[in-house]
Structures are given as C-alpha cells and as structure tokens.
C-alpha cells in the first residue's frame, strides 16, 4: 500500500474523530456552562436566556437594526426607497462600529453613506426636473448628467427614417432639420425619443445637420435603467414625451391646413 494513501487516510480519520468529539452533546453542554450529568430543560432555558441577556448591548442593538434595514434594501424594488433604507442601515452600522471599536465596519459604512446620499439627491433632482417639464418647463437639463457629447458637421445625418433606434439626442449648439417635414430644430430640442417608445424601435423621421453643432446622447438601455429604477421618473418622462408628440401632431395639422388653404385659394383664383 502506498505510504501517501496511509498518511491521507490517517489524517482524514483524525479530522473525523475530532469533529465527532466536538459535536458530542456532552461537550456542547459543557461549552454552554452546563453539567452533562445534571441537565434539565429549565437549566438549558435559563442558560440560553443568560447568554442572550449578556449579548444585549447598545452596539449589538445597532447591528441588529442595521441588519434589518439591510434586508429591506434587498426586498425593495425601486431605487429611491432602496437608497433611503441603505442610508439608515449605514447609520446603524456606523454606530455599531463606533461602539464596538470595529474600525473596519465604521470606515466602510462611513464612506458608503455620502455615496448613497449623492445618488439619492441625483435621483430626486431628476424626478423634480421631470415633473417641472410636465408643467411647462421644457428644459432637458435634468438628463444632461446621464448623457455623452457628440459633434456633427453640416450635411451629416443623425439617423434616417426606418433605421433601428438605440439612442436619444438633445441639441446643444448648431441647427438640425426634420427632413420629411422641413422643420428646424434649434438648440435645446429633443430628438429620437419616439424610437424609445415604438414597439419595433424604428426611426419615424430623418434628422439632418444643417449647421455644425454639438448634441448630447443617451442610449435607450441607460434610459430604461433610469426608468425602472424610479417609476415616478418614468411616469413623468412618458407625460413629457406624450406632450411633445401632441405638439408635433398639432404642428403637422397646422401645416396641412395651411397647404389646403393655399390650394383652395389657388383653385379659386384660377
């Protein structure tokens, strides 16, 4: 027989013997401070109760409440309540770290708290700006922190009608035109938002750059992430987009009416 196999077998046997010895009821009772030869239910209950009372300290209470709020963050589906619960949990763990002299826990949650506070502020600001937009403020400043800059030259086409849509645009400088309707889009205009809402994500018109300028872009995946993180933001974004769709429809109807009036006047003149 191989000596290595003998040594391995011996080691495994010693491990199993030690584990079995540590798991013996008598040894567990001794570790709990009980006499294995004189055990009663009352004695076990009283000993466990004493151990529980000994663990009730202010530091441990902070840890318990911090853990409870951490569990809440795992059950929360939306971002704002999650951030709030995480901040409360962090405050309790900061208290635990300070009272228990646990520097690692104290520093970890001390650093996490301002990060959660910043993200909560950004999300609340986003919702506030989106709500303002639905009440008449058409500024899209609230989306800028989530967008990236891109430059276009005169004659460039941002996208064509029927193209697959995967991002939305906000004009910053320059001038852009909706080719199909010959409508100019000045700085501050939103473009490509309808592709986000259409079932097949197809472009509904062509946008051409008529004067070199800059735009900000945000991919639909990022917009969806923000949308689902905060349903309130999603609700106001849908309202805003609907308003813009109705405005575009009203402009189109006005243009058609003008063309009809012009045609009728021309026919009457002839």
Provide a descriptive summary of the structure in words.
- The chain has helices spanning 3-22, 25-31, 41-55, 58-75, 79-99, 103-134, 194-197, 220-229, 231-269; strands spanning 148-152, 157-159, 167-171, 175-178, 183-185, 190-191, 207-211, 213-219.
- It has three domains: 3-55, no CATH class; 58-134; 141-230, Jelly Rolls (Sandwich), CATH 2.60.120.10.
- Helix 4 (58-75) runs antiparallel to helix 5 (79-99), helix 5 (79-99) packs antiparallel against helix 6 (103-134) and helix 8 packs across helix 9 (231-269).
- The protein is elongated, with a radius of gyration of 33 Å.
- The chain has a four-stranded antiparallel sheet with strand order 1-8-3-6. The chain has a four-stranded antiparallel sheet with strand order 2-7-4-5, with no helix packed on it.
- It is an alpha+beta fold and 270 residues long.
- It starts with a helix and ends with a helix.
- Helix content is 61%, strand content 13%.
- The model has no long low-confidence stretch (mean pLDDT 79).
- It is built from nine helices and eight strands.
